[in-house]
TrEMBL record:
Residues 1-12 have a biased composition (Polar residues). Residues 44-159 form the BMERB domain. Coiled coil: none annotated. It comes from Caloenas nicobarica (Nicobar pigeon). This is MICLK protein. Residues 15-26 have a biased composition (Basic and acidic residues).
């Protein structure tokens, strides 16, 4: 009888330990899914930030282009006046030369700003490319190595 109770209690202990191991595995799986979900949300937020920044850069480039066109038109008129091709001689030559130099300085300033905006745009493009590669690598690494063929392993190494 004591042996029967002992075997019953020991088999009961085994039964009790199995659900706790299953529960632990379920909790681990839930945590992993929650972490993956949070990671995906963060990635999406970063993509949106980059998109908004890229749109702002694009708008600034368009505005810059308009300002450069206006300066170009004004510069052409000013150069004609300086050469004496235009009839209007309301301003003296030194005043016109001063305006022309200011125009050149403004144009150079706009060109530097355009270069900075283009660098920012390229940076955003590279960050986006890196994010996509990281996501692709995560997906490849989530697959068990035993299920991967040679091509999959090579692609993972390349990424």
């Amino acid at each position: 009888r004591q042996q029967a109770e002992y075997s019953t209690s020991s088999s009961g202990d085994e039964f009790e330990s199995k659900p706790s191991a299953i529960d632990k595995a379920k909790r681990t799986l839930r945590r992993r899914k929650k972490l993956e979900k949070e990671t995906k949300q963060l990635i999406k937020q970063e993509e949106l930030k980059r998109l908004h920044k890229a749109q702002a850069v694009q708008r600034q480039l368009e505005e810059l282009e308009e300002r450069q066109r206006a300066l170009e038109i004004f510069g052409v008129e000013l150069e004609r006046k300086l050469r004496g091709e235009s009839d209007s001689s309301t301003k003296d030559e030194t005043q016109m030369l001063h305006e022309w130099f200011e125009l050149v300085l403004e144009k150079n300033k706009l060109m530097r700003y355009e270069s900075q905006l283009l660098i920012i745009a390229q940076e955003l493009e590279l960050e986006d490319h890196q994010s996509r590669l990281e996501q692709k690598l995560r997906e490849k690494m989530a697959i068990d190595d035993s299920l991967k063929d040679e091509m999959d392993l090579n692609e993972e190494d390349e990424i």
